[in-house]
Amino acid sequence: MAKPIKHVMLDLETLAVSPEAAVIQIGLVYYDAASDLPVSRGISISPDIYMDKMAYFKVDPRTIAFHEKTNPQNYEYCKQSTVSLKKAAELVREVIDSAKENETYAIWLWCCGTDFDIPIITHFLTYSGLKPNWSYSYVRDYRTLREMYKNIVPLTAKGDHSALRDAMVQYNHLMEILDYVGQPQT
């Protein structure tokens, strides 16, 4: 019998747009039926942590300028983080494992375009000596679904742009779309 699906939304803030981009924020959101509450985790990583890791991670000055211009408070907040890359990678895996509930659920990992977040987070985990704990065949593209159902307008509140906030807005909109089309099952 197929496992029920649990949807997990992932959003990243990075310092470049390539698969080796340095990650400064990770946002993860899913719904926990037992508590009837969303579970969310935001992880910030100081950009300074990458100074001696430039052979492994890409940093684009234009992307830094984008962060400093569009949301300088969030960028400064990331600079204050003391979380190591290994700890951040472990936290990502913990959230995914928590969503699986002892392998009770199959995880559909959603993000805006499978060509951005997934290669970057995979590289991030691999650098930290960890493997992704989700199936590559269960990665889903929220951006495509969003474009297919433009008639379903997300209920968003104004606020600063951060990985966690974006993941929450995207997750809520995804649930609206899935309610409209019927919740997919494996």
Structure described in brief:
Helices cover 38% and strands 20% of the residues. It has 186 residues and is an alpha/beta fold. It has a five-stranded mixed β-sheet, sandwiched between helices.
Overview of the structural elements:
With 186 residues, the chain is α/β, with parallel strands linked by helices. It has a single domain (5-181), classed as 2-Layer Sandwich (Nucleotidyltransferase, domain 5). Helices cover 38% and strands 20% of the residues. It contains six helices and five strands, in the order E-E-E-H-H-H-E-H-E-H-H. The chain has helices at residues 61-70, 72-79, 85-100, 117-127, 142-148, 163-181; strands at residues 5-14, 23-32, 37-44, 106-111, 139-141. Strands 3-2-1-4-5 form a five-stranded mixed sheet, with helices on both faces. Helix 1 (61-70) crosses helix 2 (72-79). The chain is globular and about 50 Å long. The chain starts with a strand and ends in a 5-residue tail after the last helix.
Helical residue percent band: 25-40%
Estimate nothing, just give the exact number of structural domains.
1
So what's the overall shape?
globular
> Helices and strands, in N-to-C order?
EEEHHHEHEHH
Q: Whole-number average pLDDT?
A: 93
**Class computed from helices, strands and strand pairing:** alpha/beta
Question: What is the radius of gyration computed over CA atoms, rounded to a whole number of angstroms?
Answer: 16 Å
Kindly state the number of beta strands: 5
Distance between the termini: 9 Å
What's the CATH topology name? Nucleotidyltransferase, domain 5
Number of helices: 6
Strand content: 15-25%
Q: What is the C-level CATH assignment?
A: Alpha Beta
* CATH homologous group name: Ribonuclease H-like superfamily/Ribonuclease H
List low-confidence stretches: none
If classified by CATH, what would the architecture be?
A: 2-Layer Sandwich
- Adjacency order of strands in the biggest sheet: 3-2-1-4-5
Largest sheet: 5 strands, mixed
